[in-house]
Amino acid sequence: MKTLLKYLILLSFAASCNPSFRNNYSIDSKQIKRVRIHEGFICTNFKNEVFIQCLRKIYAKELVTLDSLDGSTAANKEHLGYDAQTLHLIDSLASVFSKRPEMNWHIENKRVIINLCLEYRNSKDVDQIALRIAKDLRKKYM
């Protein structure tokens, strides 16, 4: 419970540091369900990049070769308009998440990093942040 509380405090702090997050958007549960059914490309790319950066924080050396073979990060950043605030937020979210105690959980002497990063990518917290980002980016670029 203490870990969850610390995480929520850090997430709130990261969000409050970004001026675009100072506005409170109301997001109801029906809207979250619609996001899961069809997220839209901004939400999908945001959440995918959070997942990739989460893996990158833990498996930095191992992903070097994959980065040269796969253009997912470049595509995600392009769909997010290379927005510096958004990319900084993604990096901050991944950094905070990668330092959580759960990232050291083991099953049969192996960590379960990919599962944890996927759970985080699909979490309600990231859904809500992705919705805010999508709304802000649509206003900014469209």
What's the structural blueprint in terms of helices and strands?
Elements: H1 2-17, H2 29-37, H3 41-58, H4 63-69, H5 72-79, H6 84-98, E1 106-107, E2 110-111, H7 113-121, H8 124-141
**Largest sheet features:** 2 strands, antiparallel
Low-pLDDT windows of residues:
4-8, 13-25
Sheet with the most strands: spatial strand order = 1-2
- Structural class, by secondary structure, is mainly alpha
In oligomeric terms, what are we looking at?
A: single chain
Structure summary, number of beta strands: 2
List the secondary-structure elements in sequence, H or E: HHHHHHEEHH
Residues in β-strands, percent? under 5%
Describe the structure.
The chain has 142 residues and is mostly helical. The chain is built from eight helices and two strands; from the N terminus they run ααααααββαα. It has a two-stranded antiparallel sheet. The longest helix is centred in the middle third of the chain and has 18 residues, at 41-58. The radius of gyration is 15 Å and the shape is globular. The termini are far apart. 25% of the residues are buried.
Descriptive tags:
142 residues; mainly alpha; 8 helices; 2 strands; 70% helix; globular
Outline:
This protein has eight helices and two strands. It is an all-alpha fold.
